[in-house]
Records
---
Amino acid sequence: MHFTRPVAAVAATFAISALAMPTSLRPIGSSLLPRGAEGEPFECPESTAAAKQTLLSAGAKPMDIAIAMLENGCAFTAAFTIGNNKVDDSAELGVYHNNWHMLRDHCDHFAGAGPSEWKTRGQELHNDVVLATKCQRQLWSKLGESTYFGLQRGGASNPGAGVEYGNYCHKYLDFIEKGGHLSDKMATYYNVVSM
């Protein structure tokens, strides 16, 4: 059974530091921002523009911003519980929600880490946007687009699951680039099937 969630519609108002996202920074309240139809722009708090700038300063590319926005919405931080209710190699970590298997296999910082280290070692990445972005860039570079999306969405057991997710990431990238929203407080919404 699959559940859908409005991935990019999580509301939060908080600032993130230029170099880290402490675990104490979590969304305030649970109300969703008002939004229009899927793909239509809506305003986020000012902290969203600052968060985009922080990631760009850390080396994020426009596709990285698209992935982070699609995964986190206006909160735009690792605003979920470490692991995102998943454990071991399936645990989702950091602002880009990369799974632990990808990270330990393809991010130099976590080379040699085992599946059970997801919580202790993953906490480093979960709290540090510079490290998260460094790993994100390594994953993208080492895996290439289709393998990245496949492993990010379906893991080693279902890499074909990344096709639809990759399409949504490209839609968000178009929203960012064509709409001039790379560094402002604007977001959009796509109803992505949760994995």
---
Amino acid sequence: MASCLQTAQALVSAYNSWTLENIMDVRASDCINYILPASLGRKVMNNEEYVSFFGPRMAPFRNFNLKVHDTVVDEAARKVVLHMTSAASTDIGDYHNEYMLKLHMTEDCRKVDRFEEFVDSAYSAKYMAELQQHQSEPRKASM
């Protein structure tokens, strides 16, 4: 049986690989994803919905890296809480964010079956709006 900590570490490695296949491989087939706080207005997503939501958002980010600052593990409850920061680069500059993840594991602790992600909502909203605006601007032809 895997430990909850091992599965949480595999999840961090999957995001650092920055491939959707690796990210989804750590999730149970019935995993439910919450992006919080609720004030962001994000709906609860199953895996299919998460792929549709997150997959297109990955493309602009290069060299994505998560750094874990603190971890709390409750093996009996099959939960792990991670405090992390991320760094990446995009066409509009450096990206940095902060997260608290509360991961609920399957009975054997091999997969995540509930993923609660708290993000720095003010930073996320501002950065993503700027990135979207940049991506929607017409490209200038090279001479």
---
Amino acid sequence: MDHVKTYPKAEDDTVLMDWKFSFTPNDTMDLTERQLKNKVNPKIILEVRIGKGMISKGLDVIVEDFAFSGLMRIKVKLQIPFPHIEKVEMCFLGRPEIDYVCKPLGGDTFGFDINFVPGLESFIQEQIHGNLQPMMYEPNVFPIEIAKMLAGNPVDQAIGVLAVTIHGGFGLRNPDKMSGTPDPYA
């Protein structure tokens, strides 16, 4: 969080703030030795499908060294009953700056950053902003119905589907000292 600006003249049951934020996981200036030792470079592996139906091929694309920053407006609607927050609405006040390294071939070892291909980085950036704009760029807001979610009531509609495949795990800690091996679940 770089800075927060609040608006005290908002409605009584509303907290309105502008957050200037930055996510820079590779900035190690303020890290302690222990944090540096445990630091992990975040990576996302995406599968890009080329072709249609039976004649398609999936290619792995590694996105790493990503960082982003921007200015976001947060509006929190308060309520008296628990959880005391009815709804949170958020939107970007401008296009966030997004930086990343995208390696489609060869992965970690031999992959090259495709952003060096002329015109491709701006095309990918426009695709990202084109998808975010109708959801989160002012005047559009991304609402999170906190009270409904915690009450167990169905939210009005789904905004998408996320499929997660866990291929394995390592370095798992056993929270139960009496049993032999950890029993993780997802």
---
Amino acid sequence: MDQRVHVPIDDPNADTEWNDILRKHGVIPEKPPSPTPIIEEALQEAIKQAHENRLEGKDLDELDVLEDDEDEAFLEKYRKQRVAELSTITKASIYNQVYPLQKPDYARNVTEASRKAYVFVHLTSSLGTNVESQLLTDLWRDLARKFGEIKFCEMRADLCIEGYPERNTPTILIYRNGDIQKQLVTLRELGGQSTTLEDLQRLLVDVGAVKDNDYRTSRSRPAESAPKHLRSSTKTTAEDDDDDDDWD
């Protein structure tokens, strides 16, 4: 029986003549390609995209200020884009306020209305001491004025759902096409008592109520200079709010 010969290998990944011989004879596997060129190419593409999209999020007044610094044809392209966006938003902005709800009209004003537009419902606290609910009421008004194509509604939670736990308020219900698309129980997932308008705007984008490149949100969103697959996130996501325990 042939005896297996032990071949000394210091570092199988080292670029040495000995390792080349071993790879040639299949003793050690081929060295994997270096990821450096792929990373460098991705970074260069990110820089290119950042330069090409440098005017994203700027309104018409801000574009006018840049007349001396940017190519006129390039600026005109973004002006036409902004005018088209403004026209679309103006036509779709039919709500522009927070609508108080009553239980008998809930199906018509929420479920049926969601077949035409996104409907966001804030189930409020019945207590004047709930800081998160008070905060969301104020932010709800700001969102309604800013995103008139979305219907924002409000109703006391215990009047909407008999016996609904006070500890679960405020609750956000997001409707589209006659169904609840997402629910958030309290503002824990958004930032708690520190929740901002920007946090809620990101929610609008996440659920698809507003486009990711909408200039109304991009002005308050931090710039991202690298593609997602090169960035690591340390933020952990909250547990799914569909847990039945939240309704007990």
